[in-house]
Amino acid sequence: MLQGYGSTILDGAWLTLLLALTSMAVAIFLGLLGAAFRLSPIRWLALLGETYATVIRGIPDLVLILLIFYGGQDMVNRLAPMLGYDDYIDINPFVAGVFTMGFIFGAYLSETFRGAFMAIPKGQAEAGAAYGMSGMQVFFRILVPQMIRFAIPGFTNNWLVLTKATALISVVGLQDMMFKAKSAADATREPFTFYLAVAGLYLVLTSVSLLALRFLEKRYSVGTKAADL
């Protein structure tokens, strides 16, 4: 059916999954940082966090990918000679894809995490401070564990969108399953067959992810309904 291109597309699927997981790790870090900035009482930090979230969420993902990949590569090659490096630097598409997707979805997760933090009663942080915990200890030991329960639904949506959006990275040369499918379609002139196969693989990936995240949501919600009552 796939005329010998099945293993090639599966190799691309593995790269797609690796790209999605690594990008999400970067996005979680930036999302937590952005949420902390937006909730900060320090005005310039809050403004910086709001600017990051507003600007990134207001520009199409494909435009940002092209801007960051080509603009970043141009900037690196302009700065390199100033540091004594004269050879041309070609940025790896996977590395560029990870940081680009992480940077984009960090903005979306900052909104998810901000809302989750705001759902935690203020008395929780005040109790931690009363016990002599530092601000960082209160954040990571008290707020983050409770925030996860509120953030999982929004996180699930962002993960599904990020997973599908990885297909856009193929435009900068990353040989993911979308890139492999396009190459196979061009070679065989049967685009429907290969794009349908890729659609099926994305559906499997997102469906498994959805089941896993729903299980995680149930685990984090154990005992909370009774407590709320």
Number of helices: 9
Order of helices and strands: HHHHHHHHH
The end-to-end distance, rounded to whole angstroms, is 56 Å
Q: What does the overall shape look like? A: flat
Radius of gyration: 21 Å
CATH-derived topology: MetI-like fold
CATH architecture: Orthogonal Bundle
- Determine the CATH superfamily: MetI-like
Number of domains: 1
Q: Helicity range of the residues? A: over 70%
The average pLDDT score comes to 87
Q: Would you report the number of β strands? A: 0
| Main sheet record | none
In the CATH scheme, the class would be Mainly Alpha
Strand proportion: under 5%
Structural class: mainly alpha
* Unreliable stretches: none
Subcellular location: Cell inner membrane; Cell membrane
Membrane topology: Multi-pass membrane protein
Keywords: Amino-acid transport, Cell inner membrane, Cell membrane, Membrane, Transmembrane, Transmembrane helix, Transport
GO molecular function, one term: transmembrane transporter activity
Looking at this protein, list some descriptive labels.
single chain; 229 residues; mainly alpha; MetI-like fold
